[in-house]
Amino acid sequence: MRNMPNKRKLSLLLLLSLVLVLAACSGGNNAPGNSTGNTGGNAGANANGNAGGSGETAPVKLTYWVAMDGNASRSLGSYSEMLFFQELEKRTGVEVEFQHPAVGSEKEQFNLMIASGNLPDVIESDFTAYPGGPEKAIADQVLIPLNDVIDEHAPNLKAYLDEHPEFRKEIVTDDGTIYVFPSIGIGNRAVSGGLMLRQDWLDELGLDVPVTMDDWTNVLRAFKEKGAAFPFTARLGTFNATNAFNGAYGVGQNFYQKDGQVKYAPLEPGYKDYLAQLNAWYEEGLLDPDFATQDAKAHDAKVSNGDSGAFFAYIGSGMGRFLNAMEGQEFDLVGAPYPVLNEGEEPYFVNKPYEYRGGGSAGITPNNEHVAETAEWLDYLYSDEGHILKSFGIEGETFNMVDGDPQYSELIMDNPDGLSIGEAMGKYLRVSTPTPGLVGDDRYAEQYYEYEQQKKASATYSEHQDNADQVLLPRISQTPDEANELSAIMAEVQTYQDEMLLKFIMGSESLEDGYEAYTEQLRKMNIERAIELKQAALERYKQR
Amino acid sequence: MRRGLRAGPDYTARGPKQGLLRRRAGRAAAGLARGKGEQEGAAMKTLARDYKRHKYLYFMILPVVLYYALFQYGPLYGAIIAFKDYRIAEGFLGSPWVGFKHFLSFFDSYYFWRLMKNTLLLNAYLLLFSFPAPIIFALLINEIGRSLFKRFVQTVTYLPHFISLIVICGMITQFVARDGMITDLLVWMGMDRTALLGQPEYFRTIYVVSDIWQSVGWGSIIYLAAISGINPELYEAATIDGANKWRQTINVTLPGILPIIIILFILKMGNMLEIGFEKIILLYNPNTYVTADVINTFVYRKGLGESFEFSYATAVGLFQAVINFILLILANRFSRKVSDSSLW
């Protein structure tokens, strides 16, 4: 080429680029041809095999935006590769093209999608967290109201809602609009975490599983004498994100309700006693002094090397992992019931999720041209057949019927590719995370928990789960203006509360001298206005 | 293509006294920016001639100009949401105006002064300890004759720069935990055993010392480059005058790199109200808020609250930018007066 005149070179270059462009174009032409071929085939199969779908009309193809579950993304590139969705497509004839945001930036990509106005047919997300609330999502033309659609095209969901009017309240907006196909929590094993202790230590010391706060103090003291450096270990979240011990004093962590009135825990008398107890444990060396700074690794290390004998954790990720890691050694765990102050009382503040999970709920966008078909397709998940498919998969493949109960097959329980139960479930099914349809089936929870101790803990924690409905705030929603005002107040209050919580526990601020000033300062920061705003939302909720 | 090029000077040549960024962009479009105001006509001619002569140079600079136009100046209009109640669906232009509401809400915050104090103090400590560290290090390294040892030391000190911040903070957390390496050392020296990150009084020290560890090697590169640019004859002359190594360092090397030091110092001054807050978020906890909570971390927590606070965050960002800008100008002016060297 060196001796070629410049013009020749240039024309060659042009030619080359032309060829490339042409190739790209023809490639583009090919693609739709292929895909119509595919959908045609599926539609045929559908018309023959299944009367449920809308067989005679043109095949429905939907775009579906959903963040991938971490367990699934480990083995799948897209939900279209998932056994459950492939079978669902066969049964319903509805073809779905998935759009997955990158793992870790789901929130940003959700916002980008909304801002761009380039919406798919269905969005599966947590619309209770939509800025300004679900009402705003409808006003923003992101979702369409579904009341009529569900009445006409979703008989299974409609039947469920008619049977459960209390649940219906949870999923509607203040004016009664339904905006998603909800993820519905069923089952009596909803509480997935709680306090745990070393069963082998309790046996050795001849102690019972603690029930009251005094029991707890005794057990922790005994652990200390036995040689545990930090009898109760914790992380920051134990005291400000979960209900570990506060429930015994009749207070929540932040906002909760009592007899229909919104309360803010630090302003209630029980809260001071709660802090006093934690402070006493801290001073006595029963509570790990590093709870505010240590990471999960340090926390777990203290449990497994015997520095600590009691802690708060989840049955699956905590207890299961410890039992698995310590198998063959002298190490045994037991779940303790949510503590109470006096013998005979029942716990109310248990970590029970909302029946309407919020996340994993599917909304239909105004872009959707097949609203009726989409609704029918989603409604299938609320049928018994759809629920089994979603939670247990295909009989003979991922589960077998034993005495009328679906039992996961080896593919799930002892995966040949070495996947853990959770990972295998994530690869084939949509069962362990919230999804449209019914989640938290007891038959699943039973099997998901591998160890006997886990099953027992699950029963212990969930024993009083219905009490939680009386104290936890339901899914109230604030108007956009209220939300703005609240966030302005709460940014300061939360900072202050987090800070003072630690100071009181660690004793750098005295409860006797400082508590008065603390509540005074909270009032100055307008906490009472925040309570009012929550109360207003609660009143609207009751009116639903 | 000519049109695209014309966009450059229009942007940058609006006023004679411009900010640093504009200046930089202006310099990037150096050849273009010559024409201004009444000289427009003549400038156009010069430009056309210049363009003919250096076609390829213009072509090469085009991406840079486009970059600044698209990614630096283009998004600036979004700053208007600082004065609006931004809602995603209504967009930048459609959201309602609210004036200075978000600024006032920040200034009125109970924590405003604490945040200002923490941000400024932490930056001041960085300026006092972390800024001179690479300079001293470069001067020391420069005196090492044996090149193998020198290279070894340099490589070792660069390393932390290449480690991800998450890992760095994980290491720090481990080192200063109750049973950490550094804690052990301090206990041996007579301190009470405790988790250092839980104590507010140690936070700034941990932050600054680890910052030095992270950046001293990498930061010294630019000074070493400057030192190698000093005319060797100066050293010869100094030696003849009987100056020892120490004198040479003070009177030859240091003045030789002073312009670089000043430029970096001024740039640093333009960041006084901001701070690497990712590192703080990874290291702080409510117990150390009192010394560790800075403007950016507070805004971050607030943003995760009841609703997305785009407008509030933008307002605070704008406030920080304005203060930084003023500090930058002042530092530059001060430096020009005192030392004759400055950014512009």
Automatic annotation (TrEMBL), chain A:
InterPro entries: Bact_solute-bd_prot1, SBP. SUPFAM superfamilies: Periplasmic binding protein-like II (SSF53850). Residues 1-31 form the signal peptide. PROSITE patterns: PROKAR_LIPOPROTEIN (PS51257). Residues 508-544 form a coiled coil. PANTHER family: ABC TRANSPORTER SOLUTE BINDING PROTEIN-SUGAR TRANSPORT, ARABINOSE-BINDING PROTEIN-RELATED. This is Extracellular solute-binding protein. It comes from Paenibacillus sabuli. The lineage of its organism: Bacteria, Bacillati, Bacillota, Bacilli, Bacillales.
